[in-house]
């Protein structure tokens, strides 16, 4: 059986204030054409369909057109909600859409109920695990502890229990939206840390034949059977070196992955990160190839140049982001606030602050528990407010 694995569409998102709806529409055209031309048996969408819980009307219309085209092409689609999606909004009409071959899995209660497809070798059970916020689903899933690993483990227990009731030889696929250990993040994924821990081991998915992951924006192979498709478009300059693709996966008669092919997505405009003195960036002929790229320029001039953005735009008309990192003798003490925070989580920033005001004395274990609990409470309050607002 052949699957087209994709995720993290983030419909409605912009790139440094540049709208991406046309680029997202081009990707969805490509997706439908690939599914049809490569004779795909099912499309797997592993979460973050939208960029926000309340998507814009143009984003909803784009999504609606894509579903109609997949249904008209006769390609079954299995889709889960991600941490950016409103599960309740995305799941509206799931029963009716399922009759058209569009299977939305947004409710944790349905984790143990697969979409079952059949080929010449028998049945394949596809289980959708929507993004699981630990504090909201722990009791529902019967997890013994809080945290991502515990709730995903409880969800997979339901998957394995259902699979055990099915005919011998039934193959299995799981869609999940999570940060799995070994994956490389970028700057454009929303932090899902709970209790100071966000990554879960790949072993939590043991017992199934293929795991279609979403959340991380780079295409990655954690094991031959556990893969991230990555986002189809770049959503931050940290993704400048990404090759944006979907996975074309062939599942053999015994559940083995017999082929895994990366299918390139359309690129609306390449990305480039340039660094150096402004005059050098403007004069260096090696940068001619970046004229049509979206540019992030980091200027290292000791003194900020006059009107740098205007001058950059004359040579690079699509410059979107300008960063100043002056060359100084003592860069440690004078580093910019943004630079000091780069790559650090909210919890790390809070811990650093406490250490600073205590003149080097950090948190003890009890204080760290209180701090992490406060962050988790804020996350749960926000998720609860959004969920109640959808009722």
Automatic annotation (TrEMBL):
SUPFAM superfamilies: Metallo-dependent phosphatases. One of its GO terms (biological process) is DNA recombination. It comes from the Bacteria. Residues 268-356 form the Nuclease SbcCD subunit D C-terminal domain. It holds the Pfam family Metallophos. SbcCD cleaves DNA hairpin structures. These structures can inhibit DNA replication and are intermediates in certain DNA recombination reactions. The complex acts as a 3'->5' double strand exonuclease that can open hairpins. It also has a 5' single-strand endonuclease activity. This is Nuclease SbcCD subunit D. Residues 1-217 form the Calcineurin-like phosphoesterase domain. Heterodimer of SbcC and SbcD. GO terms for molecular function: 3'-5' exonuclease activity; endonuclease activity. Belongs to the SbcD family. Keywords: DNA recombination, DNA replication, Endonuclease, Exonuclease, Hydrolase, Nuclease. It comes from Streptomyces filamentosus.
């Amino acid at each position: 059986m052949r699957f087209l694995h994709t995720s993290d569409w983030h419909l409605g998102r912009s790139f440094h204030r540049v709208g991406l709806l046309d680029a997202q529409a081009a990707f969805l055209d490509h997706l439908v054409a690939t599914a049809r031309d490569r004779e795909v048996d099912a499309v797997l969408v592993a979460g973050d369909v939208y960029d926000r819980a309340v998507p814009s009307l143009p984003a909803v219309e784009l999504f609606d057109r894509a579903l109609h085209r997949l249904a008209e092409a006769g390609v079954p689609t299995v889709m889960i909600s991600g941490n950016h999606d409103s599960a309740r909004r995305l799941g509206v009409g799931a029963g009716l859409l399922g009759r058209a071959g569009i299977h939305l899995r947004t409710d944790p209660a349905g984790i143990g109920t697969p979409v079952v497809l059949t080929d010449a070798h028998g049945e394949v059970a596809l289980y959708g695990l929507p993004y699981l916020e630990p504090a909201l689903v722990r009791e529902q899933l019967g997890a013994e502890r809080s945290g991502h690993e515990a709730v995903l483990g409880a969800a997979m227990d339901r998957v394995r229990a259902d699979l055990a009731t099915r005919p011998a030889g039934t193959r299995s696929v799981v869609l999940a939206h999570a940060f799995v250990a070994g994956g490389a993040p970028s700057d454009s994924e929303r932090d899902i840390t709970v209790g100071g821990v966000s990554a879960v081991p790949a072993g939590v998915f043991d017992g199934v034949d293929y795991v279609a992951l979403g959340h991380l924006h780079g295409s990655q192979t954690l094991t031959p059977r556990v893969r991230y498709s990555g986002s189809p478009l770049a959503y931050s300059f940290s993704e400048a070196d990404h090759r944006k693709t979907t996975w074309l996966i062939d599942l053999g008669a015994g559940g083995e992955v017999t082929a895994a092919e990366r299918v390139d997505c359309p690129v609306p405009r390449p990305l480039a990160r340039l660094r150096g003195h402004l005059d050098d960036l403007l004069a260096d002929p090696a940068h001619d190839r970046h004229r049509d790229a979206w540019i992030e320029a980091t200027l290292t001039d000791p003194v900020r140049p006059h009107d740098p953005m205007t001058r950059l735009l004359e040579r690079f008309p699509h410059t979107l982001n300008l960063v100043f990192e002056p060359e100084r003798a003592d860069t440690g003490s004078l580093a910019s606030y943004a630079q000091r925070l780069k790559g650090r989580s909210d919890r790390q920033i809070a811990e650093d602050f406490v250490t600073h005001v205590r003149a080097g004395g950090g948190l003890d274990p009890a204080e760290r528990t209180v701090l992490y609990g406060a962050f988790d409470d804020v996350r749960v309050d926000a998720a609860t407010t959004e969920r109640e607002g959808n009722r």
